[in-house]
Amino acid sequence: MPESETLYVRQSALKKFKRCRRSWWLLYHRELTLPPSPTPEKGQRQLGTLVHKCLENWNTGEDPYAPIAEFERDLAETAAVFGETDIHPDHVKNLSLARLMVEGYIEWEETDGARPHEEVVAVEKQIELPLGRFGDHDVVLTGRIDRVLLDTFSGDHIVDDYKTVANFDKGQEFWIDDQLLTYAWMLRETDGLTVRTGRHTMLRKVGRSARAKPPFYAREDVYINDAMIEAAAAHTHDIVRDMVTALENESLYPNPTRDCSWDCDALPVCSMFDDGSDAEAMIQQVYVRRESK
């Protein structure tokens, strides 16, 4: 029997694999990323990441606006490297919008959105769950949960995921999304917690101007039962099995959609794997290795 290789699989990697095998292979398995750019090609993702960092600080008692100041400094340094004297206007817009969104959310949490019977028991909680051996790989499922809360009325727990959204019409995809269910399963197996609520806490990407119509913040809860958790566990095992099989068989085909232009950092090199070009040479020139989390 060959020596086993440990494969660490994040929740976001499971989603990416289902979306596009090639993108997953390049961005998650090989951990490639594009270096910083002075222009905001991924503005919406940038905003979401920044807001998440601010809310992490707020939940842990740190300065919620420190990530904005740090990001602004990083942008100025990057601009200088590229010979620019000013931060790109779209970056400035994102910095301002992030501050307004975070300020409003904190106020909402302490007034209209307050829930005194809920206690935050973990922030950015890291969890690891060994899944066993798949092919030649030992697989460990990893996750990072924005917040875990305790409902002091019921004694059950809540997994809470922050989302920056254009509107609150999330549609059916929220109800069939495995991520919160998988977190519930992982917390049960690793910490012995009973999770009965999966939640998306949503912040609208608007500056709350006089023309903007509230509400700007909302929660969407889904009740979780044991059958749903077991189904999510089974789905996860199936996806991981497909993932390992794809690696071992080198079945890493793309799944292009209209979202690739803004949602996939693998786009610059993707087609080169199919047109006879030297894709690996391009990777060496264009990409850097992402730091593992």
Task: State the helix count.
Answer: 10
Poorly predicted runs are none
Oligomer: single chain
| Sheet having the most strands | 6 strands, mixed
Order of helices and strands: EHHEHHHEEEHEEHHHHE
What is the residue-averaged pLDDT? 91
Task: Sum up the overall morphology in one term.
Answer: globular
Strand content: 15-25%
Question: Can you walk through the features of this model?
Answer:
- The protein is an alpha/beta fold and 293 residues long.
- The protein has 2 domains: 22-111 and 268-289, no CATH class; 118-244, Lambda Exonuclease, Chain A (Alpha-Beta Complex).
- The protein contains 10 helices and 8 strands.
- Strands 1, 3, 4, 5, 6 and 7 form a 6-stranded mixed sheet that branches.
- Strand 4 and strand 5 (157-165) form a beta hairpin.
- Helix 3 packs antiparallel against helix 4.
- The protein is globular and about 60 Å long.
Q: What keywords describe this structure?
A:
293 residues; alpha/beta; Lambda Exonuclease, Chain A; 2 domains; 6-stranded mixed β-sheet; two-stranded antiparallel ribbon; 10 helices; 43% helix
Topology (SSEs and partners):
Layout: E1 5-10, H1 11-19, H2 21-29, E2 32-33, H3 43-59, H4 66-81, H5 89-110, E3 118-134, E4 137-151, E5 157-165, H6 178-191, E6 195-204, E7 217-223, H7 226-249, H8 260-263, H9 267-270, H10 279-286, E8 288-289
Parallel strand pairs: 1-4, 5-6
Antiparallel strand pairs: 2-8, 3-4, 4-5, 6-7
